[in-house]
Amino acid sequence: MQSRGSGPRPLSRISSIMLSMFATMASFYVAGRLWQDAQNRVYLIKELDRRTGQGQSAISVDETLKLVACRHQQKKLAALEMELAAARHEGFVGQYSSETNGTYSRKRLLVVIGIVTEFGRKKHRDAVRKSWLSTGAAMKKLESEKGVVARFVIGRSANHGDGLDREIDDENSQTKDFIVLDNHVEASEEGPKKTKLFLVYAADTWDAEFYAKVNDDVYVNIDALGTMLASHLDKPRVYIGCMKSGEVFSELSHKWFEPEWWKFGDGKSYFRHASGEMFVVSRAVAQFIAINKSILRTYAHDDVSVGSWMIGLDVKHVNEGKLCCSSWSSGAVCAAA
Predict the structure, then answer these.
(1) pTM score > 0.85 for this model?
(2) Domains of the chain
(3) Is 168 helix (H, G, I), strand (E, B) or coil?
(4) What's the distance, CA 5 to chain centroid?
(5) DSSP string of 291-315?
(6) How many CB atoms lie under 10 A from the CB of residue 274?
(7) Of the residues 15, 138, 163, 332, which has the maximum number of CB atoms within 10 A of its CB?
(8) Which residues contact 127 (CB under 8 A, 6 or more apart)?
(9) Do the beta carbons of residue 282 and residue 306 sit within 8 Å?
(10) What is the reported pLDDT for 264?
C-alpha cells in the first residue's frame, strides 16, 4: 500500500490528452480568426480603392465623407450649369423663362427680393408697401405676371415669443409679406448672418433666375430691375451691384469697425464688393451659398461678407451703376431714402 504522505497523485493520461487537444483546437481557432480578419481588411481596402479610383492605401472616414460631399456638390453644380445653358439656348421669352417637364410647364421666377428689416421699423415697411411692394392680390399678380417675389426679412427676438415677436407675427398675419427666420436672433452685429440665411432660405424655397438683397429704406423700380436682370440672363454665375472698395477700420470706437481687420493686409483696404444697399446674385451662386452655408465666413458687414465669398469663385462681377442707390439717376433701379 502507498503511504498517505507520499505526495499528490499525478494527472491521469486521459486528462493530459484532453488538455492537449483543447489547447491545439484553441490555437487553430485564434489563428483562423486572425487570418479571416486580415482577409476582410484586405478586401475592404481593395474595395475602397476601387470605388474612389485611388490605388493608394485606405483613406480615413473623414476623408471619405469629404470626398462624397464634394462629388455630391459637383453633381449639383453640373446640373445647374446644364439647366442654365438650356435656358440661354431657348432664349428669354416673355417676362421670365419656363421649363417643361413631362406633361406640364413650370415658370421659373425672375427674381426673389429680400427686404432686410428690423424691429421698430414698421413705418419704413409701410412706406415700401405704399411705394413699390405690392400687397394682397397685387402681390400675387406681381409674382405670376412678372416673376418677382419680394418679402421683408426679419429674425426673432432674443426673448423668443415676447412683444416684439408678437408684433411681427400680427403684422405678417395681415400682410403676409414676411420671411421670418426662426433660427436667427435679431442683433445689429448679426446682419451678415441674417443676409446669408435669407439667401439660403430663398434658394431652398423658390426657383428663380436671380436673388436680390435690399435694405428697407431703399425704393426699387421693379420694371427697371426686370429689364436690367434680363440683360444678364446669359451669365450663369454673376454677382451684380454697385461695386466699391474702401478703408478697413481697426479702431474699436469707429462706426465701421472690422474685428477681422488684420486679415486685409497692411494696406487695410477692402477688396471690391457690391454695396449692401442692394445687390443681386444668380441662381447658381445662391445655390452654392445654400450648399456651403456652414463653412462660409461672415465679417462685420454683410456686403463685405458676400464679396468675400465671391473672391475665390468663377463668378462674373458686374459693376452696375443702376444699383448705386445713393445716387438716383435716369434709369436707376433703386434709390436710398
Answers:
(1) no
(2) 109-241+275-336 (3.90.550.10)
(3) helix
(4) 89
(5) HTGGG----SSHHHHHHHHHHTS--
(6) 27
(7) 332
(8) 337
(9) no
(10) 65
